[in-house]
Amino acid sequence: MGILLEEVYEDCFILGEDRGVHLSFSSEKDVVVVGDRDKLKEVLLNLISNALKHTERGGAISLLARRAADFAEIIVEDTGCGIRPKI
């Protein structure tokens, strides 16, 4: 998973720079995800694209892949405005 996450990071790094948003990524070495590589990449790119749209200049987006028990956990965090709770 780390290799795919690094590819996604590299694909989005320039977009982040152009928008003044800092992108970072980290991956544990033993994280493995079994699935359709193209679909996983599409999902990750979509999450980061949304984060870029909603993160203001000077903000940050981080990508992380880690093991969580017997599962892989992929985290995309940003300093954007978030989603308003339903009232």
Level-2 CATH architecture: 2-Layer Sandwich
- What is the strand content? 25-35%
Fourth-level CATH superfamily: Histidine kinase-like ATPase, C-terminal domain
Radius of gyration, in Å, reads 13 Å
Helix and strand content put the structural class at alpha+beta
What integer is the average pLDDT? 89
- In what order do the strands lie side by side in the largest sheet? 1-2-3
Overall number of domains:
1
Shape: globular
Tell me the distance between the termini: 38 Å
Brief write-up:
The chain is α+β, with helices and mostly antiparallel strands and 87 residues long. The protein has helices spanning 2-19, 37-54; strands at residues 22-27, 60-68, 71-78. Helix 1 packs parallel to helix 2.
Could you characterize what this model shows?
The chain has one domain (2-78): Histidine kinase-like ATPase, C-terminal domain (Heat Shock Protein 90, 2-Layer Sandwich). Helix 1 runs parallel beside helix 2. It has helices spanning 2-19, 37-54, and strands at residues 22-27, 60-68, 71-78. It starts with a helix and ends in a 9-residue tail after the last strand. With 87 residues, the chain is α+β, with helices and mostly antiparallel strands.
